[in-house]
């Protein structure tokens, strides 16, 4: 075990010996208690932690290796524990906890209203469910624009309180570049985001594609390069023409992640609910974004399930015997009826007796449920 961990063990043992001299945690206990953040080096001068296996959390090193080999990077935006578990099972590389939760989960028309505290709730839920993907948390609007100190403080909270491995911020104005650089210098990995930046819809005039004329296309590439220079490990390219995305990908030494930017990026990202066909975004007039492929139609399945549930509850077929599993013996039923009668609850006793008889008749002689 490395020097750091030996020191940590000695400190923990010393604290334990004060109250319980016979108690000292094993090295295995300490390893189990440590979360494998992506910014923990795989090989350190102190001899630990050990290189991560494919079953461990994806790291920035893994992403760099995939990018170097030309292997596409898979990213999904998700906001809660169940979706994070699904991403884990599928082996997705990166889970982005996006401020798009403002629209997808909270029902707002834009990403602007969501607060940092709300984002942290989503981050913690995802962190509990996803043990494999690299976890990236969005910095919500209004939490990093004022100055570099504010940006660093917010980024620190996203890692410490949200359990994320890295953060993402939008835009490439000089102040955003400065903020990105300050966060990186604080020891926090940063993903950039250019093209359509939803937090900037006030100046963009709405959710509008970018890079569709010469000046705008050049600006996309220049901004991506500036974010790389600031120390970003990756850049999201949203809603830009494929040639522009290809140019940015070629110009950069870091991975580009496309969303509505064509197939020539280093990887792709879609929102969990969009790719499942679960619901539609308000800002697209109740239709799925043009760039999104629905890999399933889960929304149709959900609607049918809800309608079936309503029908069966209404007609009394649910819950039936199969979904009423908790039994009481005939002897205890009789005792229960006697107690109800002593309490003067004759009507309640009659109701309980009738149901007990009905449930008993619903069983076949061999104990199986009748059709």
Automatic annotation (TrEMBL):
One of its GO terms (biological process) is pantothenate biosynthetic process. Its EC number is 2.1.2.11. InterPro entries: Pantoate_hydroxy_MeTrfase, Pyrv/PenolPyrv_kinase-like_dom, Pyrv_kinase-like_dom_sf. Pathway: Cofactor biosynthesis; (R)-pantothenate biosynthesis; (R)-pantoate from 3-methyl-2-oxobutanoate: step 1/2. Keywords: Pantothenate biosynthesis, Transferase. This is 3-methyl-2-oxobutanoate hydroxymethyltransferase. It comes from Trapa incisa. One of its GO terms (cellular component) is mitochondrion. Coiled coil: none annotated. It catalyses: (6R)-5,10-methylene-5,6,7,8-tetrahydrofolate + 3-methyl-2-oxobutanoate + H2O = 2-dehydropantoate + (6S)-5,6,7,8-tetrahydrofolate. The keyword Transferase applies. Belongs to the PanB family.
